[in-house]
């Protein structure tokens, strides 16, 4: 049953049916007629029926670096909420942090299948830059700063600096770090710079054997913690680039009798829901992921409506959340 | 630069370029010519160039009930792996457990945008059934049993029965349950039936005030645990439909001095990575999510190739993982 047949069945015009499914204005009488006809026929509007009014496809592509991440989910859910209110649906692709899949996803969305794109970005290569410059639809970057584009990002450096400083202020002398890929400017490089700056500002030296690079997973955090503790000298505090990495490091500590926070203070970035239920509750930096999602979605809407030609980079601040894992009296 | 221009630049045929990007056979000489031309031009194959060989769009739509779920991520990553080997990309939509969005996503994918659909299903309504029957492309259901369709599901009933039985065998007498929406036949209804059967088989009675229904979230688990413990009589064991619900219930226990497992044994379904790092490690049922993803993807490939006209329902078994949260000596 197409929209015309259904309109006939309901005894209303096609445009009334379209307004009904697009939440447009409709008299109560017509609304009742349409609802009765839906009851009778089980009619489901086709995608095209729902876009009769606006004549646009109403799809936004969102490129995600991974699926099993609370931060990614928070950002994406708020993007969906803001864009949903404007009648857009999201098409997501998951790249599993693989550059090639990111590139092919950008390419896929560039072929006019969607009206806009939001890239939840990790590593940005030259190939990304050249493809992004060629996008035919408005494109917003969330999570990284990239000149010449509309971006929403976090103050990763400040977050890492102050979370590390908190542990050093409590008397830690042998700070260690498990970071992410340094080609990822936000979660990798900036969080590392923040850590290093806090260590140097505290008058301590950076010990290269106390610096590890992990993948974004608990398993990788576990492996890197094992390596950190394999040497003769042991760290007394550990800053991790993400909560998942920290959870893996904590599992290693639990299995090997390393007491938190007595032997090792530990902290991270993300403020995941599970932080409070870990065997020692985890101190972590709250980044405003939901706000980032809303901000990115609103930027995209503005770019679609061409309300401004000026690109902007919005950097969101953060909150330090102290819990038991850093609760040591100096 | 399109594929013809690039082929000319590289000094090879269009079909050689296509074979290159589709991992087809290619002589070393031609491969070297193409790679040199990529270096020179920064050429990125367009989506159509990559599909010249097969003449199909090579997209599969996957409908997800939520994003921040480890089980969903595990299933989806393995679907992506199997289909990726066959040259398919996944387009995902997240419905946030909203039936209307599930319906509109099915409708979206029905409009010939994709070559196949995998629905990670929760509640199946009559509207789902009628839309699923009208799909023009092969469609596989993962997570639920639905007659007349190819499905991959778990033994939810057996999983819940045996996880509950384990706690009752250790002497629990006042079993409680925090379940999911009973309209969700797998995670909601079957897990509840399994719990109830175990209670009755142990010669105990079901206490309606010890049965709660939560949403699929930690926050909801916390609220329902609060309600469970608000009465005069307290449960001594608790089976939760998911690890997230259990983590929320555990947070309530931690904040309110309810000792696990001494005062309350607790267990769930999912075997999430974080179970081992919770403040009391959580006993949980391991469902074979990765296998379910692979199986679903292979079913879809088989249906695309029309190797069989017979629909099948594959039910996967489970493993009980005992940890500290149920470690009470009777």
From TrEMBL, chains A, B:
Q: Which InterPro entries match?
A: HTH_LacI (IPR000843), LacI/GalR-like_sensor (IPR046335), Lambda_DNA-bd_dom_sf (IPR010982), Peripla_BP_I (IPR028082)
Q: Which residues form the HTH lacI-type domain?
A: 1-54
Which GO molecular function terms does the record list?
A: DNA-binding transcription factor activity; transcription cis-regulatory region binding
Q: Does the keyword Calcium apply?
A: no
Task: Name the source's superkingdom.
Answer: Bacteria
Q: Which UniProt keywords apply?
A: DNA-binding, Transcription, Transcription regulation
Protein name, entry field: Transcriptional regulator
> In the record, what lineage is assigned to the organism producing the protein?
Bacteria, Bacillati, Bacillota, Clostridia, Eubacteriales
């Amino acid at each position: 049953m197409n929209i015309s047949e259904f309109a006939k069945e309901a005894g209303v015009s096609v445009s009334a049916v379209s307004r009904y499914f697009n939440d447009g204005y409709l008299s109560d009488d017509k609304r009742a007629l349409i609802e009765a006809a839906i009851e009778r026929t089980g009619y489901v509007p086709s995608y095209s029926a729902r876009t009769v009014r606006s004549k646009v496809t109403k799809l936004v592509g969102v490129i995600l670096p991974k699926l099993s991440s609370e931060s990614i989910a928070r950002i994406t859910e708020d993007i969906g909420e803001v864009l949903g209110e404007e009648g857009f649906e999201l098409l997501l692709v998951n790249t599993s942090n693989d550059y090639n899949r990111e590139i092919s996803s950008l390419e896929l969305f560039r072929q006019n299948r969607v009206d806009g794109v939001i890239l939840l970005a990790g590593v940005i290569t030259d190939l990304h830059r050249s493809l992004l410059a060629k996008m035919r639809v408005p494109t917003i970057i969330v999570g990284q700063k990239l000149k010449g584009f509309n971006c929403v990002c976090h103050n990763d450096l400040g977050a890492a600096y102050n979370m590390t400083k908190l542990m050093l202020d409590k008397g830690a002398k042998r700070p260690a770090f498990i970071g992410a890929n340094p080609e990822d400017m936000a979660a990798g490089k900036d969080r590392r710079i923040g850590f290093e700056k806090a260590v140097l500002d505290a008058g301590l030296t950076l010990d290269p054997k106390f610096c590890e690079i992990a993948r974004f997973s608990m398993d990788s955090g576990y492996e890197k913690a094992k390596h950190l503790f394999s040497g003769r000298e042991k760290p007394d505090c550990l800053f991790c680039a993400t909560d998942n990495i920290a959870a893996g490091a904590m599992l290693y500590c639990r299995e090997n009798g390393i007491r938190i926070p007595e032997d090792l203070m530990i902290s991270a970035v993300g403020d995941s829901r599970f932080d409070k239920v870990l065997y020692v509750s985890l101190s972590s930096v709250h980044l405003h992921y939901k706000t980032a999602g809303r901000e990115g979605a609103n930027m995209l809407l503005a770019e679609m409506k061409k309300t401004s030609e000026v690109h902007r980079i919005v950097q969101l601040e953060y909150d330090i959340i102290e819990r038991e894992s850093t609760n040591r009296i100096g």
